[in-house]
């Protein structure tokens, strides 16, 4: 009922129609109270009537005309006129019900909210002109404040009514029946069946995190995930650390089996150029956007995602990495900024109905332990990321960890004979070329499961153990 197209007529007519219907049947106030606020009305008297009816209904008092007059006062003032009779105005609102021509007065809710939205945007424009006229104003600060005002307008002009649990369940059931009949399951898979087995589907609205020590493959997994998700809907990779050419060079290396160093130096054989061109043609078909601007504020990340959502139906976002996300806002410390960033990323995922994945490094202290495994609390962002994320996976390259801890002996013969070295060598060989992926948090499953995969960093590829590397 509330989502029908706005009917013709002025905002004043819409306000009177809604109030007349509520006065005629006060309990109908609750039909619109979850989307319509008193300050959405333009006329002060209409604001007061709506708010007063709400107060009376909340306290289970009857919202009759005499009760309203006693609360509002027998007279009111408006537009410089004093002594206007409240009872006469309330009676006129009831009479106006006969002029709606059979149209439900609640169909005018969108008219009232849209008129409020216009007034708020005009106020925001006036504020912007005033700020631009002041000397020494920082454009980025003005832009951030303007964006906050626009966001507040959007949030406070939501005319989507609340859902009951049953209504939501009906949507889920319909989605399930569609999946059963079509075989098309909602969300995204990772492209790694063994990982999908322990993680389940990655869904729009989720905030996910990939945690790992520096140089342990989180960018590789993040890029591979973004490239997988683009098969379903367009994806974007915000690369705040690497140059976009480095990402593309390694992607070409993975597609062509020509090393990124050879591609950089041009030292490949002439026939390999055809392989590179074929690899580039395959990458042309992918719907993956790159944004490699450094120190990118979250406000600009969000603005770009909104644009891509409306223009291309964006499906997923990967951000590399959390520590490098900036903001136009000032913060007292890093932790306050992290808490704000993670909560905003989760809000963006829900509002735009997209999958958002953020990469996170782990603390230096966690890397000094005798085991490469780490805890959720070791992630950059700490409790804020753990609280806001729907799922978190952790990457461990045990061969890299062991390589940094190889036993050293002054005498080579002693090294070969050492039980300590032989034990290290056995463990290193077993871990070489592999990455461990552990589900550390999962709202839709059980955390703690771990699987091993083949790891090829230069080619930007993670593959199944039983799958021959390409």
What does this 3D model show about the protein?
The strands form two sheets. This protein has a nine-stranded mixed beta sheet with strand order 5-4-6-7-3-8-9-10-11, with helices on both faces. The chain has a two-stranded antiparallel sheet with strand order 1-2. α1 packs parallel to α3 (44-58) and α4 crosses α5 (86-95). The chain is elongated. Mean pLDDT is 84; it is low at 1-9. The protein has two domains: 11-155, Orthogonal Bundle (DNAb Helicase, Chain A), CATH 1.10.860; 189-395, Rossmann fold. By secondary structure, the chain is an alpha/beta fold. The protein has 19 helices and eleven strands. Helix content is 48%, strand content 13%. β10 (450-456) and β11 (461-464) form a beta hairpin.
Structural class: alpha/beta
Helix content: 40-55%
* Mass-distribution shape: elongated
Number of helices: 19
For the terminal residues, how far apart are their CA atoms?
56 Å
List keywords for this structure.
470 residues, alpha/beta, DNAb Helicase, Chain A, Rossmann fold, 9-stranded mixed beta sheet, two-stranded antiparallel sheet, 19 helices, 11 strands, 48% helix, 13% strand, elongated, disordered N terminus
Task: Map the helices and strands.
Blueprint lengths: L10 H14 L4 H4 L11 H15 L6 H8 L2 E4 L2 E5 H10 L13 H24 L6 H17 L9 H18 L10 H7 L7 E5 L6 H12 L5 E5 L4 H13 L3 H6 L6 H13 L3 E4 L6 H15 L3 E5 L13 H19 L2 E6 L21 H7 L2 E6 L1 H6 L8 H6 L1 H13 L2 E9 L7 E7 L4 E4 L6
Parallel strand pairs: 3-7, 3-8, 4-5, 4-6, 6-7
Antiparallel strand pairs: 1-2, 8-9, 9-10, 10-11
């Amino acid at each position: 009922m509330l989502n029908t197209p706005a009917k013709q007529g002025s905002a004043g007519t819409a306000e009177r129609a809604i109030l007349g219907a509520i006065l005629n049947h006060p309990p109908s106030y609750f039909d619109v109270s979850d989307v319509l606020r008193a300050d959405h009305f333009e006329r002060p008297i209409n604001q007061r009537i709506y708010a007063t009816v709400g107060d009376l209904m909340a306290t289970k008092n009857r919202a009759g005309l005499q009760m309203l007059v006693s609360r509002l006062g027998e007279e009111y003032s408006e537009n410089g006129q004093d002594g206007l009779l409240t009872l006469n105005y309330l009676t006129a609102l009831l009479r106006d019900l006969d002029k709606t021509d059979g149209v439900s007065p609640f169909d005018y809710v969108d008219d009232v909210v849209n008129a409020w939205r216009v007034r708020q945007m005009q106020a925001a424009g006036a504020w912007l002109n005033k700020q631009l006229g002041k000397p020494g104003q920082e454009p980025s600060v003005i832009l951030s404040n303007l964006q906050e005002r626009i966001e507040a307008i959007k949030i406070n002009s939501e005319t989507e009514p609340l859902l009951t649990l049953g209504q939501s369940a009906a949507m889920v059931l319909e989605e399930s029946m569609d999946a059963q009949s079509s075989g098309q399951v909602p969300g995204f898979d990772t492209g790694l069946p063994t990982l999908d087995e322990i993680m389940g589907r990655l869904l729009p609205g989720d905030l996910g995190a990939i945690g790992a020590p520096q140089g342990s493959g989180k960018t590789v997994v993040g890029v591979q995930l973004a490239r997988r998700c683009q098969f379903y809907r367009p994806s974007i990779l915000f690369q705040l650390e690497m140059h976009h050419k480095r990402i593309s060079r390694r992607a070409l290396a993975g597609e062509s089996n020509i090393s990124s160093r050879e591609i950089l130096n041009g030292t490949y054989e002439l026939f390999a150029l055809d392989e590179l061109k074929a690899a580039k043609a395959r990458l042309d078909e992918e719907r993956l956007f790159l944004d490699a601007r450094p120190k990118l504020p979250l406000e600009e990340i969000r603005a770009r995602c909104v644009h891509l959502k409306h223009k291309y139906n964006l499906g997923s976002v990967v951000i590399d990495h959390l520590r490098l996300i900036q903001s136009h806002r000032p913060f007292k410390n890093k932790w306050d900024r992290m808490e704000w960033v993670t909560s905003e990323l989760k809000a963006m995922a829900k509002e735009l109905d997209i999958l958002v994945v953020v990469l996170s490094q782990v603390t230096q202290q966690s890397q000094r332990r005798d085991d490469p495994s780490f805890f959720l609390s070791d992630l950059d962002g700490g409790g804020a990321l753990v609280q806001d994320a729907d799922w978190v996976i952790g990457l461990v390259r045990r061969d890299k960890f062991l390589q940094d801890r190889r036993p050293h002996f002054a005498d080579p013969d002693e090294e070969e004979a050492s039980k300590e070295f032989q034990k290290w060598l056995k463990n290193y060989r077993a871990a070489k070329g592999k990455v461990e992926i552990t589900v550390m948090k999962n709202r839709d499953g059980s955390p703690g499961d771990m699987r091993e995969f083949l790891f090829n960093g230069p080619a930007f590829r993670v593959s199944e153990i039983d799958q021959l590397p390409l």
